[in-house]
């Protein structure tokens, strides 16, 4: 494969864009951050003429693949009448009503533009509702790049501190020093640790925020009973339970992870898959919390909130996700499971220690002999990141684009053809490992 044009454009972009990119996670790609000309279905086409099977899918949003004609048409048709009104329009109500039907915790909703900002909104609401200052977040969970939550996403084990009382490790220079006082960081999937922390900070915790399925680290599922007990403890102590469903929402089921797990949080955050790749985010929650926004004493605002691009894409996407009694999800699971099974079988044949875990529409692979990874620390201790980087490079050389952290996003546009081509590439790469 050639990358000459991407290399040239990257050289040029570094003179006008800080680091040559617009989001940190795009820096440091091999061989350089690629420049793309277009996406179509499960494929991306770059400026060097490479055609890549895409499992990054924009980091999750493109659940129908790239540029599905029906979605492009719906947005094109809508934007002809204007885009930003700073006022109300009926598409918002249509989308909100569809969400109310689909998502168990969605008694009321608000729309916004990014996952990062809706996380801030729900933390503010939880504080306003409870009158308490702190919240609990878990190691290896990502909730956006703001000061309040960018703690202990990928800390070194030395910096992370003791297992039963972790140190909040800032993910960036320049974060507000005061923000560390408000966050209590814990390992995930340990109910005893959670109980102890709640005792230690009694009456101080406004919210627990968690990815309900830990998609940002090894796609770990919650242990049986873990979420149920978290729910019970929150009820008992008047704590707001927040599911960050920015990845899982509308991807693992129409009602997100809360539907799959059968545990309903008090509030939840969404973005990514709900608008099929268009910029959209949402938070949803119980009436008595969301109603704090009614009199303006607790504030959520945004110039571009519920613009026509976002809302027309959302309404069209929700229509598609709800039609034919879950056909989209049947397809996503079937495709995901086929690829997961195929990768497991190849690893067995090549005697490569490979763990493939996750629900299917999103899953993760890691190089390890462990049977299961259940939290950030076990991921860090037991999986071989350098080996995955080698595998990922080999896949890229064979025309398959994977995420840096081993997460695979599946779309309805991926067919048997792409799965077979992906497994053929994986077969070749594993043979050389
Ligand atoms: C679980 C989760 N929450 C929040 C965010 C932040 O969303 P955004 O990148 O739209 O700001 C992400 C982004 O990947 C995420 O995975």
Q: How does this structure look, described?
A:
- The chain is α/β, with parallel strands linked by helices and 433 residues long.
- The protein folds into two domains: 4-67 and 326-431, Aspartate Aminotransferase, domain 1 (Alpha-Beta Complex), CATH 3.90.1150.10; 70-324, Type I PLP-dependent aspartate aminotransferase-like (Major domain) (Aspartate Aminotransferase, domain 2), CATH 3.40.640.
- Helix content is 37%, strand content 14%.
- It is built from 14 helices and 14 strands.
- Bound molecules: pyridoxal-5'-phosphate.
Integer average pLDDT: 97
N-to-C terminal Cα separation, in Å?
20 Å
Largest sheet: 7 strands, mixed
Q: Tell me which CATH architecture of the largest domain applies here.
A: 3-Layer(aba) Sandwich
Bound molecules: pyridoxal-5'-phosphate
Q: Strands of the largest sheet, in order across it?
A: 4-10-9-8-7-5-6
Strand content: 5-15%
Percentage of residues in helical conformation: 25-40%
SSE pattern: HEEEHHEHEHEHEHEHEEHHHEEHHEEH
Query: Which homologous superfamily in CATH is the superfamily of the largest domain?
Result: Type I PLP-dependent aspartate aminotransferase-like (Major domain)
